[in-house]
């Protein structure tokens, strides 16, 4: 779910460095030194084949890409979704498998949704970061005022098509993956109900409570999911690197745990030992305010910085430091664009 990398320079379009009135010579020299140490954009190997979703594109609900199965028995309406971002298809592989296995829920109603199909259609393994979205990030649009506005875009129009589905679900799990190296995790949103629900899944073992992004609300921040007095819940699973088989494995285990926990599938033992659950709470979202944001090293998501006030990066002339001991780095984006999330800083909570 990390933001697509873009060229980094003192402005949005250039990497040429010249001193200005806002930088004295010392600051300029320091900035030039940091830019020289920004890691080059790596080669991203694609080790997964995009799934063939042709059998499911028409859907069976009147909404393209949405399949729904009603058991006829009382129970929750559970939705599992993938492809919020078109190049994050590990979760779609798992949902495609489930559909090809003709899975049917034992109780309640199950909806399976493939979300940003227009972006997915554009995926090119030679440019794997280029199909995150067509016009705008679909996971920053889940605000009533935005959805009800007259503004048009490919992603916004698709979000409006899907709103009826999400207005009807009791439980939502949105499957994602990550561009930059990170341990898998579950984002549970800001509510206690979200954290409790995420902890029932068991995999991934790290549950992170957060307020989302400054650039707009995610699907799990949509009105009823974010309302602490509403019983409907949602979480977002960051299952691992975008195009690695292990990410599919993690998503598969999480979906199985969801279906078993909801009573929709027969309980089955998980492969290997059950991981111990850990929780953390984001206290600060670091948004890049300049195009020269850089970390002092290539941090990995899930790293814990032992000491308070440790320098971890620079945003122009501003130093980015840890606010407390044992600070968890949540999904650092090693090449953040201006205005996008660079990293979230989280405090570890007592284990459950």
| CATH topology category name of the largest domain | Aminopeptidase
CATH top level assignment of the largest domain? Alpha Beta
Q: Would you identify the regions where 5 or more consecutive residues have pLDDT less than 50?
A: 2-28
Mean pLDDT: 89
CATH arch. level architecture of the largest domain: 3-Layer(aba) Sandwich
Sketch the topology as an H/E string, one letter per element. HEEHEHHHEEHEHEHEEEEEEE
Query: How many structural domains in the coordinates?
Result: 2
How helical, in percent, are the residues?
10-25%
Largest sheet: 11 strands, mixed
Strand order of the largest sheet: 1-3-2-4-7-5-6-8-14-13-10
Distance between the termini: 26 Å
Indicate the overall shape: globular
Count of separate DSSP helical elements: 8
Q: Tally of extended strands? A: 14
Q: Which structural class do you get from the secondary structure elements? A: alpha/beta
What is the H level of CATH, i.e. the homologous superfamily of the largest domain?
Zn peptidases
Pfam families: AstE_AspA_cat (PF24827)
Protein name: Peptidase M14
Domain Succinylglutamate desuccinylase/Aspartoacylase catalytic: 74-182
GO molecular function: hydrolase activity, acting on ester bonds; metal ion binding
